[in-house]
Design brief:
The protein is mostly beta strands and 248 residues long. 14% of the residues lie in helices and 47% in strands. The protein contains 4 helices and 16 strands.
Length: 248
């Protein structure tokens, strides 16, 4: 602690005031940096494409728009293809699948698949700093030619799908490089690689991710997520309800 900080603390105590708040642990700062690249805007509409790739060949794809607001509201609307008009709605801890023509929304979980290995959580729900506590490993590791700091994450809630996670962060750029999700048993379940980033309204955002389902029998298959257009927006809370989403 610096001399200036010590004197400040002594002064506060002498005045009967509380000491300075504890500094944010470095591990939590890294988690916040990872979240910032994935959730750069408080409210936004994002146009995206998910592609299933096997041996460098695209075997299927889906286009969708993502409406996101705050930490716990998201709406995905499929555009074109056999799922056109289908919606996945997340509000707080609740999530629904809304099918055109159906009389009632269907409750689902954050692991609902969008395409291949990509789930709702991958696209809009996951918040590292909110959902996990972290321990920063000493030293660095090299991933894809980048020098990375490595964090071991433990889920704060027993309801979290992947209780154990390893996160690699670019030490220089402070951007996520790779994430490895594991089940409670320790078995590795999913790997996410952050391939490309871009700049939107002065902020750095992820524009392409690759997801590998390590539990799938198709070991060579990946799901590519491309975020093609970010539009910061003001969104009405009403659209994040089964009834309100019907108008989009």
């Amino acid at each position: 602690m610096s001399v200036a900080r010590v004197l400040t603390v002594v002064l506060l105590i002498s005045l009967g005031l509380s000491a300075l708040p504890a500094e944010v642990p470095p591990s939590q700062e890294w988690l916040a940096a990872a979240d910032a690249a994935r959730n750069a805007f408080e409210e936004a509409v994002i146009s995206a494409r998910a592609s299933q790739v096997v041996g460098e060949k695209v075997t299927g794809s889906a286009d969708f728009d993502i409406y996101t607001k705050g930490k716990d509201k998201a709406l995905i609307i499929f555009r074109g293809g056999k799922n056109s008009g289908r919606k996945i709605l997340n509000s707080g801890d609740r999530m629904w699948l809304i099918v055109p023509g159906a009389s009632h929304p269907v409750p689902i979980t954050a692991n609902q698949r969008l395409l291949g290995g990509a789930s709702m959580a991958d696209v809009a729900r996951l918040r590292f700093a909110e959902d996990y506590s972290a321990t920063l490993r000493p030293g660095t590791e090299t991933v894809n030619g980048k020098t990375c700091r490595v964090l071991d994450l433990t889920a704060k809630s027993s309801k979290t799908a992947y209780p154990r996670v390893v996160l690699w962060m670019d030490e220089v750029e402070r951007l996520p490089v790779r994430v490895l999700f594991s089940l409670a048993s320790g078995r590795e379940a999913k790997e996410v690689s952050f391939m490309k980033f871009g700049r939107v309204a002065g902020k750095t955002v992820v524009t392409e991710m690759e997801i590998r389902d390590l539990l799938s029998s198709q070991s060579g298959a990946i799901t590519r997520l491309e975020y093609r257009d970010y539009r910061p927006a003001k969104l009405d809370d009403a659209i994040f309800t089964p009834e309100g989403s019907a108008g989009l």
